[in-house]
Design brief:
Strand content: 15-25%
Number of strands: 10
CATH architecture: 3-Layer(aba) Sandwich
Helix content: 40-55%
Bound molecules: adenosine-5'-triphosphate, magnesium ion
Largest sheet: 6 strands, parallel
CATH superfamily: P-loop containing nucleotide triphosphate hydrolases
Oligomer: single chain
Mean pLDDT: 97
Number of domains: 1
Order of helices and strands: EHEEEEHHEHHEHEHEHEHH
Strand order of the largest sheet: 2-7-1-8-9-10
Length: 234
């Protein structure tokens, strides 16, 4: 049976894509057939005659074998703004069923699907739905990427509370170091470990001077995949 997780974060630009790619690399090096999934992306460039989003491109690159762009990213919107606003400007209604079907198709041909939201947990998809509803509809547990910087405790605790409120399961969290020399880093980590009701499954150091490929390798090496897979079995 195919498994998967939905990656959310404490904010935009906190390392969801880096963490998702790290998980994909790690799982595939354990012999699993993996796919990345970016159901809705806002912020894309015209490449080879079609809009392509960077996150989706990296997720596809870290997936096993070839996947068509549409399979990894069914809804791609050009402006880098809130997805429901970009969708409305493009005259498009984000349809949950289409996104769930896309996930199902990937799940059928692989062992593990790593889905990435956009921005944070409650980012709207349209006037009625949020990414939280999509995560619940996909039926997979949630991994929270905490971007370690001042303010992250509040964002992490609010997100964890809302994940619980929506009936989803927080299966683990990833600490991602967003800046070198953050004040009271260890104390923040201790507070998060005490406060979040899920295990720390990855601790990604600051990787400022490295290429994206190197960052993904380091992020992958920073994941406790054994613990994640153990939690997913429970
Ligand atoms: N630990 C780190 N060290 C150095 N750079 C990092 C680290 N984590 C993330 N970055 C860089 O910060 C940028 C934002 O990270 P990433 O794209 O993974 O965030 P995101 O949460 O997926 O953002 P979005 O909300 O746009 O999807 C990227 O260039 C990424 O390589
Ligand atoms: Mg991303």
């Amino acid at each position: 049976m195919s498994r998967g997780v939905f990656i959310t974060g404490t904010d935009t630009s906190v390392g969801k894509t880096l963490s998702a790619c790290g998980l994909l690399r790690g799982l595939s090096s354990r012999g699993m057939i993996v796919s990345g999934y970016k159901p809705v992306a806002a912020g894309a460039d015209l490449i080879d005659g079609r809009l392509q989003n960077d996150d989706a491109t990296w997720l596809a690159r870290c997936s096993s074998g070839h996947l068509d762009y549409d399979e990894v990213n069914p809804i791609v919107l050009e402006p880098p703004i809130a997805p429901h606003i970009a969708a409305s400007a493009a005259g498009l209604v984000v349809d949950l069923e289409r996104l769930v079907d896309g996930h199902q198709r990937l799940a059928e041909k692989c062992d593990f699907v790593v889905s990435e939201g956009a921005g944070g947990w409650l980012v709207p998809l349209n006037d009625e739905l949020h990414f939280s509803d999509l995560a619940v509809a996909l039926g997979v547990p949630v991994v929270l990427v905490v971007g370690l910087r001042l303010g992250c405790l509040n964002h992490a605790l609010l997100t964890a509370e809302s994940i619980d409120h929506h009936g989803a399961r927080l299966v683990g969290w990833i600490a991602n170091t967003l800046e070198p020399g953050m004040a009271a880093l260890e104390e923040n980590l201790e507070t998060l470990e005490r406060s979040l009701d899920a295990p720390l499954i990855g601790s990604v150091p600051w990787l400022g001077n490295e290429s994206m490929e190197e960052r993904i390798g380091r992020a992958s090496a920073s994941m406790n995949l054994g613990l994640l897979l153990h939690e997913l079995r429970n």
